[in-house]
User: Fold these one by one.
Assistant:
Number 1:
Amino acid sequence: MVASARKMEKITVFLVDSQGLFRQGVKLALNQTPDIEVVGEADLSDEVPELIQTFSPHIALMDANPPFLDGLDLARRVTQRCPTVSVIALTSHEDDDEFFQAIRSGAAAYLGKRASADELAEAIRRVHRGEYPINDSLLARPRVAQQVLRQFQSLSLMGKRAEALAAPLSPRELEILTYIAQGFQNKQIAHTLAISEQTIKNHITSILRKLDANDRTHAVVLAIRQGWISVEGKPKPPQSKISPENAAYSTGNPE
């Protein structure tokens, strides 16, 4: 009986949006999904973090672009006050700057309001499993990724905080993570550093473990937030083959 009860446990959702009709539509659609239940809803207001803390849902769906109140600032307050609640930012029109702010707010996913009910439900399930679909969005938009990462790097407040922090990564791992931040794949990095692709994979596994990151992009964002790497900290991999001198230098150091 206990096992059956656990299987039937629903993912609870709290919905915050400036449009009442939109809230009603989302609530109706999600409540028809067997494994998801909307336990509360609210318009945008300063009381939202307290309401979410009271209802203690698994997921908070937050309006990302309201007309009067900064919804992503509100989302940031929710993630700070309710660390066990995962936030999904919903937007009427996807915007690069808004996307950046969604990452800063701590949102686990960034989804357009034109998404279908099935797409929203799947995003909720993924976030509930501990995934960060927002990282997929970043990987799918390489130009935006570079802009986002540069903006993280330019945040002076984060930079000042990071100066006192020591990176848990080795110099080689930081070097590899810098290349990843620039958008290069394992094969390109291996060619540049004159080491095997398997060695690169081993380093990436170590990086993800040390940073408790979900994937490569999550690791890059965490490292840039702390000021450990810069997206412009390394030259781009050369198009020509590596010279014997450089190859000897690279392979002569411990990985």
Note: Confidence is low (pLDDT under 50) at residues 1-6, 156-165, 234-255.
Number 2:
Amino acid sequence: MVREVLRQEPAVSLLYLGDREWAPYGERTLHEVRGRAELITTHLLAAGADTIVVACNTASAAALHHLRRRHPDVTFVGMEPAVKPAVSLTRTGVIGVLATPATFQGELYASVVDRFGAGVEVVDAPCPGWMELVERPTPGDVVRKSIDGALRPLLARGADVLVLGCTHYPFLRDEIAAAAGPGVTIVDPGEAVARQVIRTMIPSEDEEIRVQVTGPVDGVAERIETLTGLAIAVENVTFGHSDG
């Protein structure tokens, strides 16, 4: 998401917080994720954030409505699987959504399918472990095997559009496209969400990108540079736990 925002508008001030201590969210309960999202929001507001991007489909599914209710004066931009554009693109009437197991449990995802999925078959494809494929150097054959396993049932059911329902998955786009074949369209909501972020954020005279992580920082800066080309120092932050 940061990469897409900077591609559209390089002159911005951004603070990115990666919650390595609690990752992956997709394997936690919605209650746990909601409590953690509230804790992180408090931290970001104290750091001066005026627009908060919940740049995680799982966290958006678990906490976006809650955060907007708790902080009505703050602008929140969330992630939701791009079912609406996928429906307009399908020829077979079958679309597959690639996401974490927790994303499919949230009220946000159910609302998206109810609003935009009428008349098509929306097939959920949980992809546990894909976040780790991105964040940790992984042999290519391991990546391909995991992707092939997730896509095979979708393709067998006739899916001709695949929705990337996690902000990590665009980094696997080439591998997903190779496994899916030329007749399958891949939809990434990142570009549209980045446009919304730029529209809603308050202009800043500063042009600064800061990266903070909970948990260990070892290898994070190197991985960011490999994935995005950005050389950025990484700060460690620690704050307490919350049950939501």
Note: The chain is about 45% helix and 15% strand.
Number 3:
Amino acid sequence: MRYVILRDDDTNALTPIDCLERLYRPFLDRRLPVNLAVIPEVRTDVRQADGRREGFLGPRNGATPPYAPIGGNGRLTDYLRSDPGWHVVQHGCHHDYLEFDSRSCADLRYRIERGARRLLEAGFPSCPAFVAPYDKLSREAYSEAARQFGVISTGWFELRRLPWAWRARCLFAKLRRQPHWRAAGTIFLSHPGCLLSRMRPFERMLAAVRSAVERQPLTVLVTHWWEYFPNHAADERFIGILHATAEFLAAQPDLRVITFEDLAEGRVRLPGRSPHHGSSA
């Protein structure tokens, strides 16, 4: 059996319900769970490194408060809680630029706890997984996140950014070409890049997804809902590729689309891991 986790990043209090419904109804109707990395309390003027306003903020609409908690959009949270196919995981706190690349344990702990509190206030259960904005964590951030979450999902792992006690586990996984590993009671998942992205050639996108899924026992597919709506208009071709991905995943008899919680709660074992690797480092 092979497994896929679909991770969509950047849902926040400003996200239009219609966008999520348009993108993921074909998944939900096929009972393919969608893991939303939700920004608990988005900063409404956050910028990228080059000064551009982040795409997940949507169009400017008059005066807005500096921060918008996800629970402040009751229609959105009601919508997400109404369908069991949606699964919420914590995506940082404010999504400040590289906010979890900090070396301050106090600041990191504050952001994790504040974000978790905002999600609980919005009516979501305790999150099983953590996704850092921009897939970037400092050594201190890894330690703080691992204390609270059963799964950390990111793009890649640099040994110099990991606590010393975990480095042998990570190196062993790298040598065996295993993209996922475990230490300190936490599962660490990498992904093969954002295969479903406007930055990639559309004509080769679905083939790349198929290749990644067929190449390894567990694949994390990462995408961003706002990339499908450039200039706030639907990109029909890109949306069609996402929906073709749903068809492909649903048609594979030896494949199961799962949630981060399935791994965290042990309902699905981390593929490629022998039993003695489950102990804490």
Note: The helical segments are 17-29, 74-82, 105-121, 139-148, 164-175, 202-215, 236-251, 260-264.
Number 4:
Amino acid sequence: MMKKRLPVILFTDEKYFSVDQVCNSPSDRYITKLRVQDVPDKVRTVNQTKHPSQLLMFGRKMPPVFLEKGFRMGAKGYLDRVLKPHILPWIQQNFQDQSELIFMQDGAPCHTSKLVQEWLSENLNFWPKEVWPPSSPDLNPLDFSIWAYVQAKACKVQHPNLDALQLSVSKVWNDMTEVFIRSTCSTFRPRIEAVIKAAEGGYIDQQES
């Protein structure tokens, strides 16, 4: 199947962004008994607030959808706040022939609920819950590349509030080039083949603990 020419795949995913400065990797740690003021200057320190304010972002490149602080994505909320007002109108505006597009979503409970699956069956050409693996960060370009790219650039510094964070994330998203997006998505099929063959259905990228 993957050797044949595919329709356009619209990859989707959700991502929380925090006002705190990003700390990229668990390997970027400096363990010491020294007091903070005695740590060498060459060691970069990142201040983390106890409960940082966050934005939920639901992300040709579709504009990001931001959901307010405290929003919890259930099946009805996903349908009424994301699919109906944002996803469907954008697809209808950009694709005259919807058979040219496959809508993809991961196995989150709100995505695989009967309510959402039935609505998608009636309105979009999509991969049902039986097609997409329930846990698949190695296969979604947003998971294995784009979110990290946006976060690294948008959260270089701590933001004073959610408005500043949203502006920063939006700018990085809007400035992301088509070349970068195409290059990232071009690894989709090789990654599927790697998961099937090399990893026997398991992870192919090292996962953070």
Note: Confidence is low (pLDDT under 50) at residues 50-59.
